[in-house]
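Why should sequence recovery work at all? Because a backbone constrains its sequence more than one might expect. Tight turns favour small or flexible residues, buried strands favour hydrophobic ones, and helices have their own preferences. The token representation captures these environments compactly. In the example below, the structure is given first.
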């Protein structure tokens, strides 16, 4: 007998028992993004490899070590997206969205792929929520984007997350900084890892983002970018700090913060927690004013951020944050025999048409076994259908939380179940608050029950 094929290393299965946690995060991040005026965009899972080389940067770990790249006969090289910004900007350029009014705001929920060593909070396939804003050069736009990230963290009820900000300047002032970095690290060339020796020539600022412990020690005394900012970049950073203060958002300036992708300019920021180990970055982003032009579009300033869904879930579970209740069954219909099954099917179809979650026996179980099953799936109400009920056209529905039974007319089941449900809500039984949420959520439309 062949062995069981297991999921690939660095991936995970999300089972029905956990899906409510994912939906909690997904619905909240989408809702908050839309409150801030962002609209959803969806992009392909893979892109031309050149897109990521040009945008992310050929000296980054992502491009050098982590991308999943494939080829097919007759096609060029394609890469599974390691992040969302490059693909989103490519879509904006290709579809002519730069011709629309600024600012443009987009959000997405997608899976990303990086070949890394799997650990808590770091997977080879991970899920990311991202936002991109195009068109505004103002530091107020940076603050507005950071405010969105803060509002999501607050809405998820996550605690102990700190915001760190920095400016890495524009290409002009950064050129002087690169010279200073190169001069500093040159004296430690023999101690640098092989990757950073190459970075020393091409992009010395990438050394500051190296994961090597030895290189991290060397970087502690390196020059800081804030000492090399031009007047415009300094004014922009001062404007960001002033706007965050007006918004009441607490932050700390970290002059060593550079982010791991080459397309960033000026503002970079991270929301970090110490509660999930080394992988503590909950949200990271910044400004990338040259990226659109770099990818072939007409010049336009832009900025964005990404949030790792798995990391958010790790924190929420550790902090015992609230999640939406799992979707449960509103009504379970228990036919006592095969002769009663037709009525169960008919009744279920009517109520399902009203948006009610209904299940009935498909396994030929005994009545006792059916009642156990109804309890296991969390059915709010149970209706037993025997020969007598089918013949008379009347049956009793049991409230599983209170034990109360109510007789209903099967010919008018839609109206009578609606009244029964609403009466249960009006009784303000605590157990029915969950039922109400699930019931209304499952409704096909917003009309009818209230």
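From this structural description, the recovered sequence reads:
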């Amino acid at each position: 007998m062949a062995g069981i094929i297991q999921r690939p290393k660095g991936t995970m299965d999300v089972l029905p028992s956990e899906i409510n946690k994912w939906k909690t995060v997904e619905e909240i991040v989408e809702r908050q993004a839309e409150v801030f005026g962002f609209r959803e965009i969806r992009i392909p899972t893979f892109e031309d490899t050149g897109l990521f080389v040009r945008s992310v940067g050929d000296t980054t770990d992502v491009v050098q070590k982590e991308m999943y790249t494939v080829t097919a006969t007759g096609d060029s090289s394609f890469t599974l997206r390691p992040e969302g910004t490059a693909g989103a900007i490519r879509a904006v350029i290709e579809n002519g969205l730069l011709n629309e009014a600024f600012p443009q705001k987009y959000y997405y929920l997608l899976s990303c792929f990086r070949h890394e060593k799997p650990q808590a909070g770091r997977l080879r396939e991970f899920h990311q929520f991202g936002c991109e804003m195009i068109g505004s050069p103002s530091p107020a736009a940076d603050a507005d984007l950071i405010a969105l990230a803060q509002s999501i963290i607050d809405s998820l009820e996550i605690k102990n997350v700190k915001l760190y900000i920095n400016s890495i300047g524009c290409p002009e002032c950064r050129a002087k900084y690169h010279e200073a970095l190169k001069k500093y690290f040159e004296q430690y060339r023999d101690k640098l890892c092989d990757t950073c020796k190459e970075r020393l020539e091409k992009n010395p600022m990438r050394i500051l983002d190296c994961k090597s412990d030895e290189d991290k020690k060397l970087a502690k005394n390196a020059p800081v970018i804030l000492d090399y900012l031009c007047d415009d970049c300094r004014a922009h950073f001062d404007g960001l700090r002033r706007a965050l203060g007006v918004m009441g958002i607490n932050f700390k300036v970290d002059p060593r913060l550079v982010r791991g992708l080459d397309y960033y300019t000026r503002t970079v920021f991270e929301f970090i927690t110490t509660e999930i180990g080394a992988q503590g970055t909950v949200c990271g982003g910044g400004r990338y004013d040259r990226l659109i032009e770099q990818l072939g579009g007409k010049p336009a300033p832009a900025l964005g951020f990404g949030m790792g869904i798995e990391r958010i879930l790790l924190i929420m579970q550790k902090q015992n944050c609230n999640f939406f209740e799992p979707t449960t069954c509103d009504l379970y219909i228990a036919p006592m025999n095969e002769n009663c099954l037709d009525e169960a099917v008919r009744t279920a179809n009517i109520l399902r048409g009203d948006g009610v979650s209904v299940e009935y026996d498909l396994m030929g179980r005994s009545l006792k076994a059916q009642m156990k099953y109804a309890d296991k799936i969390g059915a709010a109400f149970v209706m037993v259908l025997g020969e007598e009920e089918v013949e008379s056209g009347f049956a009793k529905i049991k409230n599983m939380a209170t034990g109360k039974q109510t007789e209903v007319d099967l010919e008018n089941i839609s109206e009578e179940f609606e009244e029964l449900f609403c009466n249960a809500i009006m009784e303000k039984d605590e157990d029915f608050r969950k039922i109400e949420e699930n019931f209304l959520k499952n409704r096909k439309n917003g009309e009818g029950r209230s």
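A few observations help interpret the result. Confidence is low (pLDDT under 50) at residues 444-450.
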